[in-house]
Fold this protein.
Amino acid sequence: MLRSVTATRYVTPLREGGSLPGLMEADDLGTYVVKFRGAGQGRKVLVAEVVSGELARRLDLPVPELVLVEVDPLLGLSEPDEEVQDLLRASAGLNLAMDFLPGALGFDPVVHAVDAELASRVLWFDALVGNVDRSWRNPNLLVWHRALQLIDHGATLVFHHAWARADGSVARPYDASDHVLRAAATAPVDLGPRVTTALLEEVVALVPDAWLEDEPGFDAPDDVRAAYVRWLAARVAARQAWQP
């Protein structure tokens, strides 16, 4: 299970992201970057963050800790920004938070060197989950204590926005032409044997029921989880068609 915390203070909005994530303090004395279920992009962004982020972690890729954060809409009463007030009101209950990494730098491929094996594993993983948001314009990579950190996986698993057509994208080739690590990813990598059905079930089980309920075409959250597992397992099986 993901660790759970309760938000105690809204610190500031982070306007770099389209979904208006916020920096919040929690009852464990930690500080977190929170993505809200009430944001315009919806709860599927949070599902993608958990599934892809925790899958990456189990493939030994560096991802900051993800936690579930309980948000009380009353926290927004003292906020002068009406947009923040509305967002907190719409996000009562469980939201997703990533450990805040103080002093982290945005990755710059001109300045920061990346080991070829690590770059190749990141590229392979992004191809698996269909990450369309790891370009040189928006790398979604941080450098913290001189080590790479993968963040922001809300734009992965695009298939879940149209379940009826999901099967048609299982073997879709991954366009790596704009990937920020493409030039560095020169090592032969195939992580497929590590992505077992049991591993996928473990990762998908981390998604709270509240983010999977009332999904059109499914009767229960476990049915949605099973659909994620089936698609990802089929994607792995078809990797000769898409892996870099």
Remarks:
- The chain is about 25% helix and 20% strand.
- The first strand starts at residue 4 and ends at 13.
- Residues 4-99 form one domain.
